Amino acid sequence: MDAFQQFLKTFFDWRAMGEVIPQMLTVGLPNTLLLAIISGVLGCILGLVLAVMGISRNGVARWIARVYTDILRGLPAILVILVIGIGLGPTFRMLTGSTSPFPLGILALTLMAGAYIGEIFRSGIQSVHTGQLEAARALGFSYGSAMFLVVIPQGIRRVLPALVNQLISLIKDSSLIYVLGLLASQREIFRIGNDAMSNSGNLSPLVAAGVLYLILTIPLTHLVNFIDNRLRIGKPVKKEPDDVAAVVGKGV
């Protein structure tokens, strides 16, 4: 019984959670969303470039995209963040005069997201039947126009669930930026919980941070399922009143 009470006191101290949650909501949550959204948008742009390079007729472009994707997907995320944040830190400070590691954290997340999103886009584009490209070319489109106006939009639509999943991963990976030593006003959810844990020796603030991550990611998970079902099944067709009456009449 004493061990269970100690467990509750260590991980579910409501007073410790209550002290840290306001700061998580006012400071940590906006910074977490900022990291995930900016790196997600930039990662989509980079990923689209990598996807186009990956299916290009140019062998050098395909090789560059393949090497980049293999390296960035194969390295641990924490290592990429350290290499970008610490390795480029002096150059960044010299060029900008800023000591904030926040932009470097966004850059690291963007580079990693681009590698994953590039593969998502590539698979989606290649899943589009070649007849779509051939039909567009037959109508007079150039190869580039046919790809960007016909094939790529269809491919992106097919991989929307995977893109939302990648956004969920970015929200969680943003917690790793704390290793760069963010300013007090730039701390994300996990860093605030980690600082509170270090000061009190209690792990409850980290549990509170985990709950906030769940609040962010669980709705997105259900959104993925909704999009996936809608793409597979399609939008439900509502029957007109006349159609319903006709069906009832036949039954009678």
From TrEMBL:
A single Gene Ontology biological process assigned to it is:
amino acid transport
Q: What InterPro entries does its record include?
A: AA_ABC_transptr_permease_3TM, ArtM/GltK/GlnP/TcyL/YhdX-like, MetI-like, MetI-like_sf
Under Pfam families, the record lists: BPD_transp_1
Ranges for domain ABC transmembrane type-1: 29-224
Q: Which cell locations does it reside in? A: Cell membrane
Where does the chain cross the membrane? Answer: 33-55, 67-88, 100-117, 138-156, 206-227
* GO MF entry, a single one: transmembrane transporter activity
* Keywords associated with the record: Amino-acid transport, Cell membrane, Membrane, Transmembrane, Transmembrane helix, Transport
State the annotated membrane topology for this chain: Multi-pass membrane protein
Mind naming one GO cellular-component term on file for this protein?
ATP-binding cassette (ABC) transporter complex
Instruction: List, alphabetically, the Gene3D superfamilies matched.
Output: MetI-like
Q: What is its main location?
A: membrane
Its family? Belongs to the binding-protein-dependent transport system permease family. HisMQ subfamily.
Q: What is this protein called?
A: Amino acid ABC transporter permease
Q: Which organism is it from?
A: Arthrobacter terrae
